Amino acid sequence: MVPFISLELDRRSTVPLHRQLYEELRSAVLAGRLSPGARLPSTRSLSTDLRISRNTAAGAFDQLLAEGYLEGKVGSGTYVARSLPEDLLYITDAPSGDSRHSVPPATLSRRGAVLASTPVSLSRDAATARAFRPGVPALDAFPRERWARMASRILRHSRAEWLSYGHAAGHRPLRQAIAEYLRAARGVTCSAGQVVVTAGSQQALDLAVRVLLDPGDTAWMEDPGYLGARGALLAAGVRPVPVKVDSEGLSVADGETRAPRARMAYVTPSHQYPLGVTMSLSRRMALLDWARRRQAWIVEDDYDSEFRYSGRPLAALQGLDTANRVIYTGTFSKVLFPALRLGYLVAPEAVVDAFISARALADRHSPALEQALVAEFLSEGHFARHVRRMRALYAERQDALVSAARRELAGLLEVPPAEAGMHLVGWLPKSATDCEVSRRAAAAGVSAPAVSLYALRPPARPGLLLGYAAVNGRQIREGVRKLASTMLDLRL
């Protein structure tokens, strides 16, 4: 065991001690003061040295183990991981330019350090369309000519006030169009006054956490779950508690056992990310009952509910809420295109003014001309027609992926079809390490994120996410062949 580094915990700080210890240890690992493979002291000896409870030390260790900075060996102890998650998450590129202009890490606040180190995306080259990056729509099939004509018309006839500051909640016609769409298509109970337009769903999640929770609070997090939601919690000083997901969605019983006093639950009930299951009605009612009893909040992320290939899209959880505990979020990134940077949230009337104020403090408002364009795209029926076309196209592309996987990946990767969404989960043999397979695939030019990278606890089975929406049939077949070659080389 290496001589342990000096750790500084500030008992006067509002940041919880377990979070301070987590940040100190993580910084030591990233800075190389704790080298890969180094054995750490036990939580018992660490708690004695630092004069903290053993539970505090164990909480920091558990978070670092879950995020991949440490690894435990049964009967041997806890060690610094030999392969850090940054190497797999592609959080940063190699530095460029004169390093003298870089900001020394010591100048960052604790919050700044958390923000700088919190993963949100798995891709460092997100602008490049390739198999099988999840979460990217069919940009090749977007009606750009129609969009350009509408944009030109709106710009020619734009009002002078559109060039000035707008309302923080968003362009009123867009809020009205969103409310009408959500009532009709998603069963959401809302008025235009409850809609707040945001810079994508990530800002909606960030606002929900900052407006409704305090640093040190806990929140249920689907496990595995969306990295952007986990990042929003961590950045606000909130502790995400991993809650298992099974065939019925998030397990409310597991959440109540692990963190009965949690102040929030983050869920993707219509199409769980990344596993793709749909939350059952009984689970939805149990979750709503928990939120009502505990006066907790539910953030419902309805990120790609439009794309269901069997029957009608399922109604939103928010429409079942009679206690006004659900914050509903959605985005145009998955239906239109990510560069638009427009999303929305629907808040209960009692708190919507707080969200509008927080939105104003964040960045005033979203661009007025883009909001006007999306409002007309919705009201003139183009949005609904585009969704129908994409639903048919994505069904074809999913079929192409499943067929190619059956031919090329039999015995290597099980890729079952799904009734909804823009990606599939490919299941590896239980003996495989999905992070290693993902890393090798990336080297071969295939993006296939590991399921375990989305998990705070080791998942029941290793797997890969395979996005199919953004790639055509030829790209799908080529990607499957590359993936098969990679896996054969690994002798899985």
Could you please describe the fold and organization of this structure?
Among the domains are: 17-96, Winged helix-like DNA-binding domain superfamily/Winged helix DNA-binding domain (Arc Repressor Mutant, subunit A); 144-381, 3-Layer(aba) Sandwich (Aspartate Aminotransferase, domain 2). By secondary structure, it is of the alpha/beta class. The protein is 41% helix and 12% strand. The strands form 3 sheets. The protein has an 8-stranded mixed sheet with strand order 3-10-9-8-7-4-5-6, sandwiched between helices. It is globular, with a radius of gyration of 23 Å. The chain has helices at 17-31, 43-50, 54-67, 85-89, 110-117, 144-156, 172-186, 200-212, 227-235, 252-258, 281-294, 349-363, 368-379, 382-408, 434-443, 473-489; strands at residues 70-73, 77-80, 195-198, 218-223, 239-246, 249-250, 264-267, 297-301, 326-331, 343-346, 423-427, 463-467.
